[in-house]
Specification:
Elements (H helix, E strand, L loop, with lengths): L1 H4 L6 H4 L3 H12 L1 H41 L6 H18 L3 H33 L4 H11 L1 H34 L5
Length: 187
């Protein structure tokens, strides 16, 4: 196991024992907005994990219960039977797509927060330049570099979130279609 963590291909942040200090250092370099972005990303991923657990654990149980109840019905062609079926499909739709819009909004906020962090960082750079003069290009370049960290973090978070949201939406759609086909009249 130690050979795995001493491999030269692993980034330095993963090889150190104090990765929390490295994370804290990165967050402090990006400014206060980066902490807000981190909170948004954490909330987004908590909702994503909840959706994955729901899709893999809870929904199959509920689907099985609906299918059992449907197959036990003696008549499946009456208006009443179709109303029950449509009610179950509506419940499934609401349960499957719960939190997906919130995830989508949180993903959309990430690049905007990143840009806000960059703007506030640039304001700080210009403030330092105004107070100390603009004779030190190294100071200005390092300040601009640090100001762009929130944009990079926001874009990375948004790209990952967009990919996962699209996969979750497709998985929900497929499960909804499969349930609808399974609840069709068989008699």
């Amino acid at each position: 196991m130690d050979a795995l963590f001493s491999a030269s291909w692993l980034p330095e942040i993963l090889r150190t024992n104090d990765w929390m200090l490295s994370l804290q250092s990165f967050m402090e370099q990006g400014g206060q907005i980066l902490w807000w972005l981190g909170a948004i990303v954490l909330l987004c991923w908590l909702l994503i994990v909840e959706r994955v657990v729901f899709l893999l654990v809870h929904f199959p149980k509920q689907r099985k219960q609906w299918l059992t109840l449907w197959n036990e019905r003696h008549e499946q062609h009456s208006w009443y039977a179709h109303a029950i079926r449509e009610s179950w499909l509506a419940q499934a739709h609401m349960a499957l797509y719960q939190h997906l819009n919130i995830i989508k909004v949180l993903v959309a906020i990430c690049p905007m927060l990143g840009l806000l962090g960059t703007v506030t960082g640039m304001i700080s750079v210009f403030d330092v330049m105004a107070n100390q003069g603009s004779s030190n290009p190294k100071l200005m370049a390092s300040g601009i570099s640090l100001a762009t960290l929130p944009t990079m973090a926001g874009m990375v978070a948004a790209l990952a979130g967009m990919f996962v949201h699209a996969r979750l939406a497709k998985a929900c759609q497929l499960r909804e279609i499969k349930l609808e086909k399974s609840l069709r009249s068989r008699r």
